[in-house]
Design a protein that fits this description.
By secondary structure, the protein is mainly beta. The protein is built from 1 helix and 33 strands. A 5-stranded antiparallel sheet has the order 5-6-3-8-9, covered by helices on one side. A hairpin with a 4-residue loop joins strand 22 and strand 23.
């Protein structure tokens, strides 16, 4: 009997620490406009589990329909019936991010359990027609039913969206030929944008086609490539997120050439700026006061950039991905130890005036906006960072892409 008990204990422990699917449960996670829905099945055929249980291991989340989709009990689990004839759905409400979950075949025990990480994740897509879309990201990486993401009718040409660290405020660049503005919006509990106000820039450097926007880690400055002004602006942030003053970045090196895109390295010691007008990427050291030192060329010795715009670095900072609007390509650039580029190559996929690019959190997919044909490409990333075969996002809903420019993943 002792040997049998020891064996059973080991089995339960292994199941508790198992991965998202396979041991006991298979789970499909779909983000919805109100949260997430889990579709749950058992991996064990022809068996019924009338008291299967689910428990959310974070106070940031709640079971939306406890009482109808499942029955709460005192140990924190919510019980539901699991069999091979149906697929129970469990709805979850909470903040954007990962959801720590425990699933058990016996929720009363609890016994025969498996850990699962659900998620609530969204993509915000800015259409140059004036609309911002909010698109749920499903567990397979595709986009679900896109809805109107809110904003303001005053935002007539949204470009790029950046969130503050707590994801309670969103900055939206809004460009029109030769001019432009930046709006600050509140993020509502349903993740849409509201109460958008144009930020005041009283400096001697007015916005002239502002496009990209990035906040520093300390949330004290916003960096905005100011296209036709040929500069990057640095705007100090007040406690309420508004701008107090904007200044020139201070670049004393190679001048920018219609800068539009910008990204930092993780240490925020370097800024990478795409120069859409002269087909280069600048690398700028960031000084202790936040201004730029002498910007230099990225050093690309491979396939030349062609009106580069969007740029993103992978997490290990070994690869930079850059959209080329004129060539309809994405460049994949190896990064050297000093942050410069090696020989850039073409991803091999064809795009249609690609504007912006974003990577999902586990870096298995790249999302590229195609402004000319009003689509978003979802490209699988191979282990070496190269692209697989890109597919158009199979999004649904009454709100469609219409000249998409910026895309940001809230994940």
């Amino acid at each position: 009997m002792r040997n049998l008990c020891l064996y059973l204990t080991l089995i339960v422990y292994c199941k508790i620490t198992s991965a998202n699917s396979g041991a006991l449960f298979n789970v499909t996670n779909n983000t919805t406009p109100t949260g997430a829905t889990l579709n749950i099945t058992s991996t064990i055929p022809n068996r019924s589990y009338p008291i299967a249980g689910i428990k959310l291991n974070s106070n940031d989340y709640r079971l939306t329909n406890a009482g109808s989709e499942c029955t709460k009990i005192e140990n924190g689990y919510c019980l539901f019936a699991l069999n091979n004839l149906s697929t129970p759905s469990i709805s979850i409400t909470g903040k954007v991010g990962a959801i720590p979950i425990t699933l058990c075949l016996n929720g009363i025990g609890p016994l025969s359990c498996q850990s699962y990480e659900g998620s609530i994740r969204y993509a915000y897509v800015a259409n140059d027609s004036g609309q911002i879309l909010l698109c749920p990201i499903n567990s397979n990486g595709d986009l679900g039913v896109c809805i109107d993401g809110g904003g303001s009718t005053a935002i007539t040409g949204p470009n790029v969206i950046a969130f503050n660290a707590s994801k309670t405020m969103a900055y939206v660049t809004n460009s029109v030929p030769g001019s432009g503005s930046v709006f600050l919006c509140d993020v509502q509990s349903d993740y849409t944008l509201d109460a958008c106000n144009m930020l005041t820039n009283t400096s001697m450097f007015p916005f002239q086609v502002p496009f990209g926007i990035v906040l520093n880690k300390s949330q004290t400055k916003a960096y905005i490539p100011n296209g036709s002004d040929q500069h990057v602006l640095i705007c100090s942030l007040n406690m309420d997120g508004t701008f107090s003053a904007c200044q020139n970045s201070g670049n004393t090196g190679i001048p920018f050439g219609y800068p539009l895109g910008l990204v930092f390295n993780k240490a925020q010691t370097k800024a990478y700026v795409t120069n859409n007008g002269n087909h280069t990427v600048s690398i700028c050291p960031i000084q202790s006061n936040g201004t730029f030192g002498d910007c230099e060329d990225s050093g690309n010795t491979g396939i030349a950039f062609s009106s580069p715009l969007g740029i993103v670095l992978n997490g290990s900072e070994t690869i930079a991905y850059i959209t080329n609007t004129s060539a309809n390509t994405v460049s994949i650039c190896p990064m050297q130890n000093d942050g410069t580029f090696g020989a850039c190559i073409d991803s091999g996929d064809i795009f249609d005036y690609p504007i912006w690019i974003a990577l999902n959190s586990d870096e298995t997919k790249a999302y590229v906006t195609n402004n000319a044909n009003s689509t978003v490409s979802i490209c699988p990333l191979n282990i070496d960072g190269s692209f697989g075969v890109c597919q158009n996002a199979n999004h649904t809903g009454i709100s469609l892409f219409n000249g998409p420019e910026g895309i940001v993943l809230n994940q």
